[in-house]
Every structure is written in structure tokens, then in C-alpha cells.
Design goal:
The complex is a heterodimer. By secondary structure, chain A is of the alpha/beta class. Chain A has 7 helices and 9 strands, in the order E-E-E-H-E-E-H-H-H-E-H-E-E-E-H-H. Chain B contains 8 helices and 9 strands. In chain B, the strands form 2 sheets. Chain B has a 6-stranded mixed sheet, with helices on both faces. Chain B has a 3-stranded antiparallel sheet with strand order 2-1-4, covered by helices on one side. The mean pLDDT of chain B is 95. Classes of the chains: A alpha/beta, B alpha/beta.
């Protein structure tokens, strides 16, 4: 199973994006500056947008899903109950799993943005996909919510998961890091080696790498373990 | 001082709270009432009971710049230039001065390259930057900013931090889910289930949150 970007290029009047690379099973993290084209790349990989040049090939990928960065874009139901049922989910169970304590009869857009993101993730992560593209899955979530989402995302044991994010503290178990530099998708490689070249790494990670201490993973446990190593 | 006295609004209840001038950050779980708290500070909502007074005036009689947590709810006009110019145009600022202010503000926020873009074509983070710049362009005394950083990269967060600190606003009240950002505030309010649970300087408030996911990761690593 893999998704291959072969000399993909997309040009708009104000910016451009070029991408080549192979995304195999595991969790890939894609970072980049604001406006660098992360969401556009997600759309291209999802097949919802076409490049000007190059090809995007999917091998062995059946079910695919893209989670937009704005959870409000996914809302199809008037109430929380409607929204959950549109995913064939039981509202009360879904609310409980998302940690939201509100009545299911409430209009879905009356939720706070963080609650809406939790509900959306609970719905989308209730199913399994061969290719799961998550655009900013941690935005608007509170810290326990980010840990919950990182756990749910990280426990996917099969398929290709691509997380587009500039989250700075809470990450799922990650296999490979990519970043968009100057309009070009760069492959930083597998962890932990990728941390040596990851330009968009969070400040804390950059400090650790500068001291020569490389965490094994991006999980909080790995980062804290590496930080403690420097104190030995 | 932003003074809350016996405030009740929906599920939020704040018997007494005084926010001094400076940068105050509201933190807490999703659904705790943070956005409601900010809407009250901005005068967008008024309490069912009690009062909120900013240096002797109600929020609605105070110059306030506000950013909504839903990026698309901030943008009224079709181009970035018109969006930035709108607060100046609404107060009948001359065309020449409006143009000068728009250019200067866009430079400060690092979005000069976006001025001619249509807002519908912006990325999520770019929409947040435009909303922030628009909220600040008339240099209001009070800035109320609801999770403007949820779509910003670390570099842009640092720019925002610097520009906000030099904005000249007497009061900046914001909420964030980035605890490293919250740690740089003058004081924190930790809200939970509509109640102020902790209030004070970051070291004081985070001392109460040491065993929770809200404790900043960098602080955990240095301890």
C-alpha cells in the first residue's frame, strides 16, 4: 500500500508547490509555514484537487478520508444527534467518547470550536481507512483533547496516516517527517534521524537536538525522557 | 482594571475578578466558558446578572479589537486590503491615512504580500493573521483574542507575540491551547465548567496544574 507523488506541481498566482515522494504505511507528519500549501497538498493527496503537472498514484488504497482543518466544514446535520447519525453513530456514546457533556439535541454549531473538533474527530476516527489525511487535527483542542486525539491517531496500526500540523507540544507516535520549505516538499526521513534536519521542529525539540539529545519519537514521554537524559 | 462583579451569563459565573492591565490568558478545557468570558470582555455579550467594567466604562463604551475563534467569522470583505482598511473606513479616516495605516499594519504582521489576495483563497493561518491585524489596526485600548493561534506556525506565533506586546493596548485578554504561549503571559485565568478555578501569575497557576496535560511541556522538561 502506498501513495506516490511523482514530480507533482501546482502553481497559483501568488505561490507554488512542488512535491515528490512515497507515503507508505505508518504515520507521516507534514509541517510548514502558514500559507506554504499544507492544506493544498492534503487536497491533492485526497484526490479533491488536481496538480498542474505530475502524477499522484495510489496503490492498494481503497477507503480514503480527509479531515479538513476547519471542523465546521464537515457539519451536515442541524443537531448533534443528526451529525452523529450521519456517521451511523449513536449520539450519546459518541459524545461520551469525545468527552463532551452537552445534550445531544443541541444545535451542532452551538458547540464551542474545541467541542466541535472533538465531535468531528470522534466521528471520523470511528472508522478505519487505508488512507487517512488529517489537516490540523489538534487545532482548537484543549490539552487533554490533544492527548486523546494523539492516542486515537497513534493507535492506527495499519494504513497510511498523514497529519498536517504545526502543533508544538502534543504529537502521536510518528514514523516519518516531511516539511514544505520554499514551496517544495522535503522528506526529512524516518524518526529519530529526521529530527536532525526538521527545520519546523518545535523550539523545545530544536534545543534538545542542539544539545545532541535526540528523542526516539515525538510523544511527550519520548521528549521528556530525552530532556531528562540531558540532566544526567 | 477589568472588573467582574457577580457576573452570571449562561453557564458562566464569576463572583469577583479584577484583571490588571497587561496580557491575561484564559486557559481551560474545551467547553469551560473561555469564549463566553471573552465575549463578555469585548461587550459582544452582556451578562444576565452582574457587571463588567473596564476602567469605569462598560465594554460597549470601550474601544475593543476582537478576534473570533472561528477564522471565517472574522472576515467581512472580499480582499485582505479591504478587510484591513474597514475599521479605519468605518471611522471616516481619510483615504491617504487609511492607505498608510493599512500598509504599515500589514508590514508589522508580515502580511504585506497578502494585501491584494481574496480572503477566500487564504489558508487558515493567513485568515487568522488578517483577523489579528484588522483587530489591532485602530490601536484599541482593549484586545480580546479568541484562540487566534490555533492555525499559526511557531514562527508566526512569535511574530504575533511581539506585535501584540508592542501594540500599545492597555489590556490584552486572549485564550490559547498552547501552554508554552500561555506561560509568557502576565497572568492566567484557569476556567473550568464556567468557574474561575485558578488566577494569578503563570508560575502560581501552573503550580496547581502540574499533574495535568495543561502543564507546559518545556517546564516539565526543565524540572
Amino acid at each position: 500500500m502506498k501513495l506516490v507523488l511523482d514530480s507533482v506541481a501546482l502553481a497559483r498566482p501568488h505561490w507554488s508547490l512542488a512535491a515528490s515522494g512515497t507515503f507508505g504505511p505508518g504515520l507521516h507528519l507534514v509541517s510548514g509555514d502558514v500559507g506554504s500549501g499544507k492544506s493544498t497538498l492534503a487536497l491533492l493527496m485526497a484526490g479533491l484537487s488536481a496538480p498542474n503537472r505530475g502524477t499522484i498514484t495510489r496503490e492498494g488504497i481503497g477507503q480514503a478520508m480527509l479531515s479538513f482543518q476547519f471542523p465546521e466544514f464537515h457539519v451536515t446535520g442541524l443537531t448533534i444527534t443528526d451529525e452523529c447519525r450521519s456517521w451511523n453513530l449513536e449520539p450519546e456514546t459518541t459524545l461520551a467518547s469525545a468527552g463532551i457533556a452537552v445534550p445531544a439535541e443541541r444545535p451542532v454549531l452551538s458547540l464551542s470550536r474545541g467541542e466541535l473538533k472533538r465531535l468531528h474527530l470522534a466521528c471520523i476516527l470511528s472508522r478505519d481507512y487505508d488512507l487517512l489525511l488529517l489537516d490540523e487535527p489538534f487545532s482548537s483542542l484543549d490539552c487533554p483533547g490533544k492527548e486523546w486525539a494523539a492516542h486515537l491517531i497513534g493507535r492506527r496500526r495499519s494504513g497510511i496516516t498523514v497529519v498536517f500540523t504545526h502543533e508544538q507540544s502534543i504529537f502521536p507516535h510518528t514514523d516519518r517527517i516531511w516539511e514544505i520549505r520554499g514551496g517544495v516538499l522535503a522528506d526529512c526521513g524516518d524518526l529519530p534521524g529526521a529530527l536532525r534536519t526538521w527545520e519546523h521542529a518545535p523550539v523545545l525539540l530544536r534545543r534538545l537536538v542542539a544539545k545532541g539529545t535526540i528523542p526516539d519519537d515525538l510523544t511527550q514521554e519520548s521528549i521528556v525522557e530525552a530532556a531528562c537524559r540531558t540532566h544526567e | 482594571m477589568i472588573a467582574f462583579e457577580n457576573v452570571r451569563f449562561r453557564a458562566l459565573a464569576v463572583p469577583s475578578l479584577a484583571l490588571p492591565a497587561g496580557l491575561t490568558t484564559i486557559i481551560g478545557p474545551n467547553g469551560a466558558g473561555k469564549s463566553t468570558f471573552l465575549k463578555l470582555c469585548a461587550g459582544i455579550a452582556e451578562p444576565d446578572d452582574g457587571s463588567i467594567i473596564i476602567d469605569g466604562q462598560s465594554p460597549r463604551k470601550t474601544e475593543v479589537g476582537y478576534v473570533n475563534e472561528f477564522p471565517d467569522r472574522n472576515l467581512l470583505f472580499s480582499t485582505v486590503h479591504d478587510e484591513l482598511a474597514s475599521p479605519l473606513r468605518f471611522r471616516h479616516t481619510s483615504c491617504a491615512e487609511t492607505e498608510r495605516e493599512v500598509r504599515a499594519c500589514a508590514e508589522r504582521w508580515g502580511i504585506a504580500g497578502l494585501l491584494e489576495r481574496e480572503v477566500r483563497d487564504l489558508s487558515g493561518g493567513e485568515k487568522c493573521l488578517v483577523a489579528l491585524a484588522t483587530a489591532c489596526i485602530t490601536r484599541p485600548r482593549v484586545l480580546v483574542l479568541d484562540e487566534y493561534d490555533s492555525h499559526l506556525d511557531s514562527g508566526r506565533c512569535a511574530v504575533a507575540e511581539r506585535v501584540l506586546r508592542s501594540s500599545g493596548a492597555d489590556y490584552i485578554v486572549r485564550c490559547t491551547q498552547q501552554m508554552e504561549t500561555a506561560a509568557n503571559s502576565d497572568r492566567l485565568v484557569f476556567l473550568e465548567k464556567g468557574r474561575v478555578v485558578h488566577f494569578g501569575e503563570p508560575t502560581t497557576v501552573f503550580a496547581n496544574l502540574i499533574d495535568t496535560p495543561f502543564y507546559p511541556l518545556s517546564w516539565r522538561c526543565r524540572s
